[in-house]
Amino acid sequence: MGMNEPTPYELLGVSDVASFEEIRDARDRLLKACEGDDTQLEAIEAAYDGILMDRLRARKEGRVAVPDRIRFPEKNGLPVAPPVPSLPQSAPNWLRDALDRPDPQSLAVSIAVFAGLGTFAILAPQGISTWLSLAFFFAVFWLNRKQKKLGRAFLLVFLSFVVGVTLALSLQTWAATPFAGGVFPNPPSTFLILTVMWLVAAFLC
């Protein structure tokens, strides 16, 4: 590392005595702020890895104690966030700009809400219109909180609803599956519609 090159700690904006939680939070914050800039994202990840290696070396030399949860969080039952897949660099810019990389907590909340509504649709099919309405408004809210564009959020969710209904009807026609009691949508169809709306709400900007 040259004389004028920042250290991994400086790149993440933390001190060399920062806690693991502070280092991790700094990394997550910077990754969110630099979305779309692959060079910056790689530099942030490299700085984070460099700090962890520095801490591990210090631990081996007896200069600092690094808790095992830093290196092996799964051993202590701590949730380990799955890596968020990124688009290849060959992907067009408009696609990169349209797709969101939700943080694990936001993704978990959206999954819980839509999975819950899907479960209600199966357990209480007489209230399917209610579950779909709640999902629709939640999806609009979830999209609108990202860019504060209510009209765009409403349009995208409406289109996702139409796509979901179209897919559900097509699958039922292809499989020759009769509607439950002659009424559409039935619970499986509702679950498919909810899945399409969830994908749009969770992964579009």
For the biggest sheet, the summary is: none
Oligomer: single chain
Low-pLDDT segments: 179-183
Amount of beta strand = under 5%
Distance between the termini: 38 Å
- Name the structural class: mainly alpha
Topology as a string of helices (H) and strands (E): HHHHHHHHH
Structure summary, number of beta strands: 0
Helix fraction, binned, reads 55-70%
Number of helical runs? 9
The Cα radius of gyration reads: 23 Å
Form type: elongated
| Count of distinct structural domains | 2
Overview of this protein structure:
This protein is an all-alpha fold and 205 residues long. Helix content is 66%, strand content 0%. It is built from nine helices and no strands. The chain has helices at residues 8-12, 20-33, 38-60, 68-71, 93-98, 104-123, 128-147, 150-175, 187-203. Helix 8 runs antiparallel to helix 9 (187-203). The protein is elongated and about 65 Å long. It starts with 7 loop residues before the first helix and ends with a helix. Residues 179-183 have low confidence and may be disordered.
Key attributes of the depicted protein:
205 residues; mainly alpha; Helix Hairpins; elongated
Question: What's the arrangement of secondary structure elements?
Answer:
Layout: H1 8-12, H2 20-33, H3 38-60, H4 68-71, H5 93-98, H6 104-123, H7 128-147, H8 150-175, H9 187-203
Helix pairs in contact: 2-3, 6-7, 6-9, 7-8, 7-9, 8-9
Summarize the structure.
66% of the residues lie in helices and 0% in strands. It is an all-alpha fold.
